[in-house]
Batch of 3 targets.
Target 1
Amino acid sequence: MRRPFLTKLLVAAAALALACTSDRNALPTQAPDFDVQAAVTCGDAALANKIKAEIKNLYPNKPSLLNAAQTRFTSVQTKCSQNKIADAQTQAIQLAGFAVTKYQNHQLFSSVTPQDVSDHVNDLYTYVGLPAPGDITGALSSGAAVAVVGPTDPPTDVKTGDQQAGVHIGTGDISATQTVLVTITPDPTGTNLFPNTAGLKEFPPFYDFQTFPDVPLFNRPVLVGICVDLTGVPSDQAHRLQLAHAKRPDKTSLEILARVDAGFLPCNSFVSAGSDALMVAQAGRRSFVGKLAERALALFRPQPLHAATLVLPGGLGGLTSNFTDFRAVDPGKLVFTTQPTNTPAGLFITPAPTVTVEREDNTTITNFTGTVTVAIGTNPSAGTLSGTTTVALTNGVATFSNLSIDKPGSGYTLTATGTSPTGAVPAPATSTAFDITEFSDGFEHESGWSATGFWNRNSMVGITNSAYPIYVNLADGDQSGGALPMPFAGSYAFWYGQSSSGNYMGSQVSGDGSKSGGTSMAPNSGVLTSPAFFIPDQGLPVALRFDTWWEIESVNPKSFDIMRVSIQDVVTSAVTELGVLNPTTDPGGAPPTPFTSGGFNTAPVWMQVTQDVTAFRGKTVRLIFTFDTRDILYNGFRGWLIDNVRVTTQSLLAAPLAPQASGLASLRTGTLSPEQPRRPRQ
Ligand SMILES: [Ca+2]
Ligand SMILES: [Ca+2]
């Protein structure tokens, strides 16, 4: 098993060619970390003597080394004396890098230790008034990197000695005012600051990238890369990995970088985004060690091939504008944890589909903040998805409670995609297939109907007409005691009436007389409107069918307490009246006597109404159920219930009057009647 070589590496990439430091015009985007400061102490004599002694102890007496170092430090001293602080600082940093490079090249005295070099670097920084880097011995080891980079240097790859991590710094990425020491230090135990508050899965190796002096914001983003150990990592997860680090300036949140191939690293175990193929590295881009490692991996590669062992020439990279601690994370994956189910056209998909952001092991990433957006994936009928399609994650779960699709079809799927404030999106998901069926609603769930007036979805449990027996009578043979009926099927129906009174009287006039029929303070009406849905055109007749129960006045039921059914073409907004349930003639009943779905002064029964709506094939429609008292008289009755509203393209024939699995059988069938001309009370 290949283990990343976790040691510190001194990035010694930068040539020590003198950077042009006369141009110190900071770009607007740059936050200069250091610049000429009058208050800077430069040129402490005692420290100068200490540095001179260090140089003698570091460099063998060869013109190319000792003399060069001495000459460079003399120049630093001169710049200090001329109060050219920025130049002095640049040259001091370059001299520090010179010492580091020579140490890495084994050109210093063999007795020189990393501590000696670290002390020298710190003294140079201090001499020119820069904050000392502190102990950089870790960055001087072969698994780490140290380099000096200046603003005009050619593009520089600062890589660890084992080439497992690095950064590509282009010319000018560092401000024209800055020459900095870049260090890359492995953090094998992951102890550096890494605010992974969401609990994303992290992947070694971990590295701390720093600059001295600290650069809060580079001129341009630089490409950081890490070779990730993918041993045992499943293919889909390997494809999700992205670099992440603490987001500056507060470093309390994680910034996940968009994925870039770090081609300057000869990694031998990384996969490219979206590829499942074995990637053969270009020969010129791989190290010999990398090739050997690839060959070794091939020997032990499990069959069949898993992407975890795929080979890419580059490492996992990301563009960043500043350095903190970098490592790879898995941004997670979206999973449909409640799948969409077969649902009638236009109605809310129930139960509400949920999408959860999960780790590879299917545990929920509860602290993940962001949104999830669903859309139709497979779309067999050119359906349109309606409802709230973008939902914020709550405890790692997004719940879509009002999704609907307007057109019937078989084999729909939903897709889910995510957003995240970290810049990394979890892998998208696709739901299992489901069907959108013809419109049919028994009102057992909230399904997207809108209701005004006294319309309400109700179980009717325990509701009794309080106008009975003082103001209204029950029909002959009605044994209900004034109770509202059970829904036709299931536990819910829509009802035009008030739970508080059991009728549709609303506020009753004061001093209303006994057996008045119930007199309202004001007329009332309400509209119940279905969601929009599409009626397929299959060349067959189309029927609207619903079960209904009603009890209204019997004085002028032809013209008052109207129960109207209409259909709206959603495209044109035109509303077509299909008819009313009211009788076409008045029976001449007394004020307290009801007229019902059973007939005049007959106990109400559930009846099944069928109405031809073939004219609306191929249209997107809404159904509209309107109740209207039209005046204040005789309103103490139990009102209008509907259940099991459906539109079927299969048959115009009435369904058999079989008892339902639960609830009552429809005892009658009927159709709607034309609404009679409106006229005054007789
Ligand atoms: Ca029902
Ligand atoms: Ca009335």
Target 2
Amino acid sequence: MAACSTGAGPGSAPAGQVLLRDGRSVAIRAAESSDLPDLRRFLAGLSLQAKRFRFFSGGVDPARIAGAIGATGPDRFGLVALDREGRIVAHALCIELGAGRAEIAVEVADDLHGQGLGTILLERLAQEAERRGVRRLVAEVLPENREMLEVFHDGFDAHVTFHEGVDRVEFPVAAWRLAAWRFPLPPSEPRPADRGKGDANRR
Ligand SMILES: CC(C)(COP(=O)(O)OP(=O)(O)OC[C@H]1O[C@@H](n2cnc3c(N)ncnc32)[C@H](O)[C@@H]1OP(=O)(O)O)[C@@H](O)C(=O)NCCC(=O)NCCS
């Protein structure tokens, strides 16, 4: 089965409310085409450094990039994290490369770094990729992007090789279980609508 390309709709990706390290709460759900305007706003608000780390250029045009990374299609799916006001504060993307491999990338709002959100999004992206038949995940990371490399290393035991100025990261999709085991989430306060449905932090 082709990676990230089943007929399953975006709503099938792992969703829910999660509590971050500092007690803030975010909602994670599948990205949708209607997210484009807010994705544009979110990308425009990232620091130059974050844009450079994510897109290998600080001078990217948020409108163009949002259209490219927010596009839905049979070979890709994304996740967004929303704050209490419903604004996007993080986004992650998985794109099918064929032969059971998929490329992943993530960006988190600058003021939310170090709260576990990047790890959680990658974990859930991998979980959904596995469900869609992906076996291995890859990413390209600038060697100076220590935060990203540490997340891949600490959470997913990723293998890293340096090639043509870029660190190429690779790990089996099943490694999301490692990250879930290493960084268990604190239980979140159930929203009134969730009461009786079990743990909203369920991975
Ligand atoms: C790289 C990036 C995505 C990491 O996201 P993040 O949310 O800051 O990463 P995390 O918080 O998950 O991981 C960072 C730290 O939290 C820890 N952590 C992870 N999950 C956790 C959890 N559930 N609870 C507590 N701590 C956790 C990690 O061990 C790590 O600890 P350290 O700071 O002591 O090393 C973010 O820095 C970013 O958006 N950078 C700019 C864009 C970019 O570089 N994208 C990558 C392109 S490939």
Target 3
Amino acid sequence: MHPLLEKDHQQLIDLIDALDKCVLKGNSINQATKYLDAFVTLAEDEFKNEERIMEAYKYPEIIDHKKEHVRLLEQLHTLQSQLSKGQTPFGKDYMQLLRNWLETHLLDTDNRLEEFLYQINADSDKKNR
Ligand SMILES: [Fe+2]
Ligand SMILES: [Fe+2]
């Protein structure tokens, strides 16, 4: 993980694991809400952090990357509002979708940002030599 992207993606994955298990076991809505809320807070923080970095370094893919963040947050906020109305909106399929989506973002979209940041470092090292 690049030092600038300090928030740990692993934490996001761990929380989605916890939520997934919670849903599979049919645990209470309260429990699911707790995990979902923690996940959303962490994701919002993490996305903001990345967006600040992308702006600071004039990352060329910033618009598309931000769009993906917005899309994931929309899905998450929909889940939150359904849960708050006492609905249990996530079947196994939905959780799978969310997980795949998140992992694709982390492995693909975030990875490209990370490579870009390493490239900048390498370039400025060369200049300073
Ligand atoms: Fe990320
Ligand atoms: Fe991202």
